[in-house]
Amino acid sequence: MTELSRDFYNYSYDELVEILEKDFGATKFRATQLFEWVYRKGVTDFDLMSNIGRELREKLAASFCFPKARIHDRQISQDGTRKYLFEVENGDLVEAVMIKQAKRMTLCVSSQVGCAMACAFCRTGTMGLKRSLSTSEILRQVNGVIEDAKNFGDGFSNIVFMGMGEPLHNFDGVTRAVRNLTNSIGYGMSPRKVTVSTSGLVPQIRKLAQSDVSVSLAVSLNATTDEIRTQVMPVNKRWPIKELLEAVKEFPDCPRKKVTIEYVMLGGLNDTEADMKRLVSLMRGLPIKVNLIPYNDNAGLGFKTPARDWVFTWQKHLNAHGVQAFIRWSKGADIAAACGQLATDSKQTKPSRLPVLGDQEQAAA
């Protein structure tokens, strides 16, 4: 690897085709072969890419590098959720979470170091924004979890951009990563199983809708009035609820694919009976489904968890009035891996070593 080496993971397939044609005189077919070796087979040693000629392999080896994921720590929740602390460029730290669910594992990845949105119920927002991650830094989280999952005999079927950061604030880095995740010769994931979340950046929602990137969209609403939403989500000052829902309405719809409205229920603040009824009115006519997310009060930000029975009352009311609603009980709260709990401020100076799992630890997980 040299200082002039290109980071392979930063490029989409189309960009790689252009580079190979321009700089190496190679055909599109070679880009296909490279993508298959790297993303489908996990091979990053050019010497092992046997269907590519030796001369081209030597040139490629001198021009491209494949940075490895650096996992500083892995914690395992009582419910089987795993949280990873990754070191990216410049010594910055971000977190990713493997969420254990009934029939699948979902990988939640970060898109920024910190976040500029300053949502009052989210610990990441207390960090402020340091910078956006490159496409490579995003995909290295994916690669690192894929490799570590071998210790557990599992893997993920879904990816959500709901970790640290506002994904659409890092539009180029995230959409390039999504292209590689959903490319049939890349990771080969279905666009329906890759979800990008946003706090409500209306221009970027519209930009995503007009792009060639096929992905599921989740929008954090979290209030039914502008007064309360502005209180907990400052982004509402710029793009209030009405304007946000207009953008949701315009987002491309197709069979079995709806925009997900995320609603974090903050006990006594946004979960009143009046809010429940207003949410039905706001959702009417929109191609959406609603995820109700009971707040985790152990995030330590001054909000309360709603009563469990009241959460079910909300779900029942929404469903009875034609709004498809699900309850998303957060996982990994005991290791601060639940929704709104990701933050790395206390870990920036002294990273810990990733433990090696023995048979007893795996059994306990």
Description:
It is a single chain. This protein has 365 residues and is α/β, with parallel strands linked by helices. The protein folds into 2 domains: 6-65, DNA polymerase, domain 1 (Orthogonal Bundle), CATH 1.10.150.530; 70-347, Aldolase class I (TIM Barrel), CATH 3.20.20. 32% of the residues lie in helices and 18% in strands. The protein contains 11 helices and 14 strands. It has helices at 13-24, 28-40, 54-63, 135-148, 171-182, 202-210, 226-232, 241-250, 273-283, 308-320, 359-364, and strands at 6-7, 64-65, 70-76, 82-87, 93-100, 105-108, 112-114, 129-132, 158-161, 194-198, 216-220, 259-265, 288-294, 325-327. The strands form 3 sheets. It has a 10-stranded mixed beta sheet, with helices on one face. A two-stranded parallel ribbon has the order 1-2. It has a two-stranded antiparallel ribbon with strand order 7-8. Strand 9, helix 5 (171-182) and strand 10 (194-198) form a beta-alpha-beta unit. Helix 4 crosses helix 5 (171-182). The longest helix has 14 residues, at 135-148. The relative contact order is 0.13. Mean pLDDT is 88; it is low at 346-365.
Itemize the secondary structure elements and their pairings:
Elements (H helix, E strand, L loop, with lengths): L5 E2 L5 H12 L3 H13 L13 H10 E2 L4 E7 L5 E6 L5 E8 L4 E4 L3 E3 L14 E4 L2 H14 L9 E4 L9 H12 L11 E5 L3 H9 L5 E5 L5 H7 L8 H10 L8 E7 L7 H11 L4 E7 L13 H13 L4 E3 L31 H6 L1
